[in-house]
Amino acid sequence: MTDDRDPWVRDFYQHPLTEAVLTQGEATQRIADRLWSLLELASGSRVFDQCCGDGSLSLELARRGTRGYGVDISAPFIDAAKRASTAGSELRFSVADASAWATPAPCDAGFNWGTGFGCFPEDSKNQAMLDCAARSLRSGALFVLDYYNVAGVLANFRAEFSYARERAGEEVHITRTSELDLRAGTLHQVWRLSAGGKAPTQLPRTTTRLYLPRELCAMLERAGFSVVALFGSAEGEALSLESPRCLVLARRV
Ligand SMILES: C[S@@+](CC[C@H](N)C(=O)[O-])C[C@H]1O[C@@H](n2cnc3c(N)ncnc32)[C@H](O)[C@@H]1O
Question: Which of 146, 167, 177, 229 could crosslink 20 through cysteines, CB 3.0-4.6 Å?
Answer without folding.
Answer: 167
